[in-house]
Design a protein that fits this description.
This protein is an alpha/beta fold. It folds into two domains: 130 residues, Rossmann fold (3-Layer(aba) Sandwich), CATH 3.40.50; 87 residues. It is built from ten helices and eight strands.
Amino acid sequence: MTLPIHITTLLFDLDGTLIHQHPSSLDVLFTILDEHLVPVMATALRDTQQFMFRYWTESEEMKQDKKMYGELTDEFWLHYLKRKLWAAGLTELQTTDLAPVIQKELIKRYKPEVYIADDVRPTLKSLRRLGYKMGLVSNRPNPIEAEVKNLGFESYFDFCFTSGEVKMAKPDPKIFEHALYLADSSPEITAYIGDNYYTDIVGAQNAGLYPVMIDPRNIFPDVECHRINKISDLVSGI
């Protein structure tokens, strides 16, 4: 499904949209659960991924965990793992027994590499050739200019910035308004493409932008907005 004809500016999320961690932490977690012969519900992967997306959107659970266990301490990560296991359908008793064991295995085995799908660069090049203004808006804490250059994305974007640089984060409409200012664009002619419903889609909608969700694993099947399975779906003929 290509973009509406009135859209002239495209804003992109970075992680999970243009680049991916391979393998993902969720895939490693479910591999470990399978190896431990832990039965999970048919919707466990979807439910857990939805929880993870929501958790990092300044959720009450995250705020509680930071207050109780400290900012990203070992205890924080262990309790976060327990929450993921609960989301996958495990009982509190199962989680209490398994979480410390799984945490050790995750630390040992989760060694992801950055993966860029084959269609990403050709699509960005085509969109640029078609005349779209393009920007990157990430919720990372640190600047990404050097990484964008190393990824070979630099020539495709007019600007990029992170939430850490501007002291506001998606889904706050103000971060989208800042991007519109940099793009010299307006909400009604601007699309935002991202993979996280809670930050990208809700944030774009609240700021008046046209939201596009990339959701190849159908994590959010009930979300009503422009949906794509891969970046090249934005352009016909790729």
